[in-house]
Amino acid sequence: HxxxxxxxxGTPLETPNLTxxxxxxxxxxxxxxxxxxAKLLFEQHLKTFFPTATRLxxxxxxxxxxxxxxxxxxxxxxxxxxxGRRFQKKVFGKTKAHGSTEPAFRFLSFLWSHGFQSPPLxxxxxxxxxxxxxxxxxxxxxxxxxxxxxxxxxxxxxxSACKKTGRWLKKFHGLPSSRSGLPTRKPETExx
Length: 192
Known about the structure:
Distance between the termini: 11 Å
Shape: globular
Helix content: 25-40%
Number of strands: 9
Radius of gyration: 18 Å
Strand content: 25-35%
Structural class: alpha+beta
Largest sheet: 5 strands, antiparallel
Strand order of the largest sheet: 3-4-5-9-8
């Protein structure tokens, strides 16, 4: 079997032993929503994505087709840790037939590596980008969406959310302003 690669935070990972029956072409990017393909993806990189997990118990894939050639996926994983405790993680994936999702992955990786990984200044944790299916993966965060807070919040909640958003934006605008601050090396990313 050919070895293929997944990029995680710009570091390629080797992925051996893929079964030919589930290999798919870039043009068949919708295949990633198949549970057996998703299960293989997460089993192959379980330690990289979730270091405390020892086993993937179950996976549920929820697909939402956006427009005609875009697909948003939510993977709900039930994992087991070293002590046998079960826990859940939710991973979001975005793929599309035309245009790359790689810039979004690279930008999220840039934010994560520049201090946006702990509250209150946090963004989703990037997990990987799979070039062969143009899939950008990241761990979702718990909590309400900012747009939902703005729609239904009390004045005090709204005021607090605005202050937190202002702190996040201040840090964001303090990042290097030239493109030289963004990652420029394209990840070596062939997974399937």
